[in-house]
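testing teh design pipeline on a random one, pls ignore if ur not involved
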């Protein structure tokens, strides 16, 4: 458990999970999800299924490509007129595109938020995917698949949010070392580390801006979703007008969570688990709640990174974490 167990509303914090995989059709996975957690399977199209009213809420199983699905606002024509024929053709093309792109584009299970102490129940989903022959990150060199966590924030206080960001930057090398991030994920820049100039800015012991300036600084250096810790959904939730004024429409949806993108989805490895990756995130939150240690590690990180012969920061982190 992380140090802070209540969310910004004083309720128990929850975490959402997004798990990418290949080699199993969405329909089959949706059926397994319903069997595990209850709920009714609803088909949106050949490559997207919803499981409504499960014990945790709505699950979604879908191909991770917008071009394989109808988009919000798309018209649906009924009958046998010309418009209906065109609409049917478009649906056929979406299905065909999904069939072809599923060879390289992952499917994804988007889980509803669960309480921290219920996260272990999602291990049954991981077991079901293995039983169906699902492939994960390390099953193919081209699989840039991730297991993403969306933990609710404990408070709107920018001081705490920034403390978590500082801790994540400080522990980035250590996390990457113990996770062995797949080459494809690094090559495609899906989980890029924060730029050095931004890391130095954030880790300055005197850097404690208000929410508005924290958001502005973040977007100045990170106008992208491709960061190991993506804060744009959270910042959109905190100040939607400010973020929308800076970013392209449709890039971000607001939610009161961090978006942790770093872990591989090592589904095929029997010793790998969601709770293993969750426990690694908890290390970040625990460091964030130690202001003296943050203040000590920040300047040390900068001095090491800017030295002529930098030391092994991942190993240096280990020494701090065991104190």
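output:
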């Amino acid at each position: 458990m992380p140090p802070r167990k209540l969310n910004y509303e004083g309720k128990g914090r929850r975490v959402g999970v997004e798990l990418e995989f290949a080699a199993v059709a969405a329909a089959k996975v949706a059926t397994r999800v319903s069997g595990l957690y209850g709920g009714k399977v609803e088909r949106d199209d050949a490559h997207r299924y919803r499981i409504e009213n499960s014990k945790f809420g709505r699950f979604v199983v879908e191909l991770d490509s917008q071009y394989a699905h109808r988009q919000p606002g798309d018209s649906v024509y009924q009958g046998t007129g010309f418009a209906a024929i065109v609409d049917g053709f478009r649906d056929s093309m979406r299905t065909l595109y999904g069939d072809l792109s599923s060879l390289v584009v992952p499917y994804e299970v988007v889980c509803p938020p669960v309480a921290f102490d219920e996260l272990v129940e999602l291990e049954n989903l991981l077991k079901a995917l293995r039983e169906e022959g699902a492939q994960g990150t390390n099953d193919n060199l081209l699989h840039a698949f991730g297991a993403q966590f969306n933990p609710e924030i404990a408070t709107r206080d920018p001081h705490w949010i920034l403390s978590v960001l500082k801790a994540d930057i400080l522990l980035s090398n250590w996390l990457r070392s113990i996770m062995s991030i797949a080459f494809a994920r690094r090559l495609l820049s899906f989980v890029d580390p924060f730029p050095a100039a931004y890391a130095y800015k954030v880790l300055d012991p005197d850097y404690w801006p208000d929410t508005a300036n924290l958001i502005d600084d973040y977007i100045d250096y990170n106008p992208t979703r491709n960061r190991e810790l993506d804060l744009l959904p959270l910042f959109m939730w905190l100040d939607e007008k400010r973020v929308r004024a800076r970013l392209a429409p449709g890039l971000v949806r607001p939610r009161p969570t961090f978006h942790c993108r770093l872990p591989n989805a090592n589904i095929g490895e029997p010793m790998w688990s969601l709770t293993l990756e969750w426990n690694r995130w908890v290390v970040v939150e625990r460091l964030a709640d130690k202001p003296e240690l943050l203040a000590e590690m920040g300047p040390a990180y900068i001095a090491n990174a800017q030295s002529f012969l930098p030391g092994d920061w991942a190993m240096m982190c280990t020494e701090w974490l065991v104190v």
